[in-house]
Design a protein that fits this description.
By secondary structure, this protein is an alpha+beta fold. It has ten helices and twelve strands. The protein has helices spanning about 15-45, 75-100, 105-120, 155-165, 205-215, 220-225, 245-255, 270-275, 300-325, 350-355; strands at about 65-70, 130-135, 140-150, 170-175, 180-185, 190-195, 195-200, 235-240, 275-285, 290-295, 330-335, 340-345. The protein has a twelve-stranded antiparallel sheet with strand order 4-5-6-7-3-2-1-8-9-10-12-11, sandwiched between helices. A hairpin with a 2-residue loop joins β4 and β5 (about 180-185). α2 packs antiparallel against α3 (about 105-120). The radius of gyration is 30 Å and the shape is globular. About 25% of the residues are buried.
Length: about 375
């Protein structure tokens, strides 16, 4: 028996309309993917700070005073305190609104959610590190210079300021060693070196800063400041000239408390003028406590003991002032061979800051 082979089955191709539709869909998807990638790269470029250098490069041989802020917060104390203060502030606001029956429920919830959101977002505005110095000149007054590494937007801000300088007659664009900087109001200067921002009181100090940032490796003195072995959030080294230590202590008195409540330092002017240097450090222990150390150095052990007595008097009086605002101050004073050192621990900070923030808040306060 013979079999007749089956006729070949004719394959039906895709209709031209479907091919066109599929091609258009794939093309649109490809274009959308490309646009998404470009948008993501653009957002990344805008948000990220760009290449940054250690701000301690600002310190040099002509530097008189140094203050260094380390925002890396490895122990999380800064984050905890920011969150704690905002929670205290939120609590104070809710209490104020609770005394006002006209505030709707949705407004109370909205206010609380807003403060919780700010807890996480405030950290982005705190730079990762900042160095502040006083630069000396033989023929002029010292000039302050500040270098900072923002966490975000530094590169984008540099471009924006460059465009503004081109259009604004009050901003003069200059160049030094291939790096541009702007003269503001004919005096101070601003520069963006990659993702590092530098501001100075004068043009000479700006050019000196650019030299250091483009000069190569960090010196041992710069590395020592940045290593921050004690974990200070803020540290300072102040060289004493004349009555600078006395003036700093007086300024501190005016800032932190009632000037009249603390002992007068004027009788100790001569003693403090013989000191050579002041060093201070501050760190946040947790969401409610701060630790600090203050050291005043001198070449005379007798002066060190006398300065320790002065500091004991000052901080004992401040302890009473702290208790009046519901804070607790613990301090120990140690006179050494060449320094008078004070170790401090201040607790109750979170509630005190929140009270200051909400001082005078009316009962009908609204978000």
């Amino acid at each position: 028996m013979t079999t007749t082979p089956a006729p070949p089955v004719e394959k039906k191709g895709m209709q031209p309309g479907l091919k066109l539709l599929l091609g258009c869909g794939l093309g649109c998807a490809g274009i959308a993917l490309i646009l998404f990638i470009i948008g993501a790269l653009l957002v990344y470029w805008v948000v990220t700070p760009g290449a940054q250098q250690p701000t301690t490069l600002l310190v040099g041989e002509q530097t008189r005073d140094v203050a260094y802020f380390d925002g890396s917060d490895p122990d999380g104390g800064l984050d905890a305190m920011i969150a704690g203060i905002l929670l205290e502030f939120d609590h104070a606001q809710r209490e104020a609104m609770a005394r006002n029956p006209d505030v709707p429920t949705w407004a109370r919830k909205l206010q609380s959610l807003g403060n919780q959101r700010n807890t996480g977002s405030l950290k982005m505005y705190i730079p990762s590190e900042v160095t502040i110095v006083q630069e000396q000149f033989p023929d002029a007054e010292p000039e302050m210079v500040v270098a900072g590494n923002p966490r975000y937007f530094a590169r984008f801000a540099g471009r924006i300021f460059g465009w503004i300088a081109d259009e604004n007659e009050d901003l003069e664009l200059r160049e030094y060693r291939g790096r541009e900087y702007q003269i503001i109001d004919g005096e101070s200067a601003l520069a963006f070196l990659g993702g590092t921002v530098i501001w100075s009181e004068g043009e000479r100090s700006m050019e000196r800063a650019i030299e250091r940032f483009t000069g190569g490796r960090a010196t041992p003195a710069q590395q020592q400041i940045r290593e921050n072995p004690d974990g200070w959030l803020l540290s300072m080294q102040i060289q004493n000239e004349g009555d600078r230590i006395l003036e700093l202590l007086d300024t501190w008195r005016e800032v932190v408390t009632d000037e009249e409540a603390l002992p007068d330092l004027e009788p100790h002017r001569e003693l403090l003028s013989r000191a050579s240097e002041l060093q201070a450090g501050l760190r946040i222990v947790n969401d409610d406590a701060i630790e600090a150390r203050l050291s005043i150095f001198t070449d005379d052990p007798v002066d060190a003991r006398r300065i320790a007595d002065v500091l004991t008097e000052v901080f004992s009086a401040w302890q009473t002032e702290a208790e009046a605002v519901e804070m607790r101050l613990q301090h120990t004073v140690d006179p050494g061979a060449d320094e008078a050192r004070v170790e401090l621990r201040l607790s109750g900070v979170r509630g005190a800051v929140a009270r200051v923030m909400t001082e005078g808040m009316p009962d009908d306060a609204l978000p």
